[in-house]
Specification:
The protein is 24% helix and 27% strand. The protein contains six helices and 14 strands. It has helices at residues 11-25, 44-48, 115-134, 170-183, 187-190, 224-227; strands at 2-7, 29-33, 53-57, 65-69, 74-78, 91-96, 99-105, 141-146, 184-186, 201-202, 214-215, 218-223, 230-235, 251-255. A hairpin with a 7-residue loop joins strand 3 (53-57) and strand 4 (65-69). It binds one DNA strand of 15 nucleotides through loops.
Length: 259
DNA sequence: ATGGTAGAGCATCTA
């Protein structure tokens, strides 16, 4: 099973690029974040024409997550179980080919000390509690998406430029560590050792992409039984080039078929 | 020059 995660920064603006990419990359599953549209405006017909079923948890203007899959997506869950009707659309879970997939768009946090930063940390704490309450580490569980956290200093282009900034604070990194301590492994990092420069996001501004000023904030965490099936993982930087790209590139992981 | 660009939706807000 070939699975990709991609923050597309509006599925409407990115539709030509995403359809072209699907045709070429042929993933079995594509987890999308920041679709920035309601369910009724999601281009499910265009993806169905390419052989993909759409499972959508949308929202007007901001946020929104979706899962495209060749196979049926079962037991779909939208948001945390205790979310109210006003909750932001940031979590979408479903079971595909025997793998429980949890697709998240973790809050950005804006700036350290703001309400949005506190909301981010609280949201990540709730995510860990959600795993405690609903899943077991013996199951094939995959947590992927835009974490808006760079796990280590080697995951940003210049740690010196991030002093006092979000995405790198000990509290944010600890929240990711808590998700790993629950019983998951950073599948992408596993294939690259201590290498740096493995970015998945580059700011649109100041030519950051072409100057290699990026961050690795799009992660794929898997339980041990699922991580054991991982064959390879890559960032498709080509999808960040060209006309009207997202500011994120797709992160692809390939898993062996179940024995 | 506390800068720069992109998207939603139409004034800013978010990233």
């Amino acid at each position: 099973m070939k699975l990709a995660t991609w923050n597309v920064n509006s599925i409407t603006a990115r539709l030509p690029l995403v359809t072209k990419w699907l045709t070429e990359a042929q993933p079995d599953v594509l987890c999308l974040q920041e679709i920035k549209c309601t369910d009724d405006r999601f281009p499910a017909n265009e993806f169905a024409a390419l052989g993909y079923e759409s499972t959508v948890f949308g929202q007007r203007t901001y946020n929104g997550v979706a899962i495209l899959s060749h196979a049926k997506c079962r037991d779909v869950q939208r948001g945390f179980p205790d979310d109210g009707a006003e909750a932001q659309a940031r979590l979408l879970a479903g079971t595909i080919d025997g793998v429980r997939i949890v697709n998240v768009y973790i809050p950005n946090g804006q700036a350290v000390g703001t309400d949005k930063y506190a909301f981010k940390l609280d949201w990540m704490r709730r995510l860990r509690e959600f795993f405690d309450a609903h899943y077991q580490t013996s199951q094939q569980v995959l947590l992927c998406g835009d974490f808006n956290v760079a796990p280590e200093d080697r995951d940003v282009w210049d740690p010196g430029k991030f002093v006092g900034a979000t995405h790198v604070t000990p509290a944010e990194r600890d929240a990711v560590t808590q998700l790993e301590k629950w019983g998951t492994e950073d599948v992408f990092r596993h294939f690259y050792g201590d290498a740096d420069g493995l970015f998945s996001y580059w700011d649109y501004r100041a030519g950051d992409f072409h100057e290699h000023r990026g961050m690795r904030i799009d992660l794929v965490l898997a339980t041990t039984p699922l991580a054991a099936r991982a064959r390879w993982a890559v960032v498709d930087r080509n999808a960040r080039k060209g006309k009207q790209p997202s500011d994120h590139a797709p992160v692809i992981t390939d898993f062996d078929e179940r024995s």
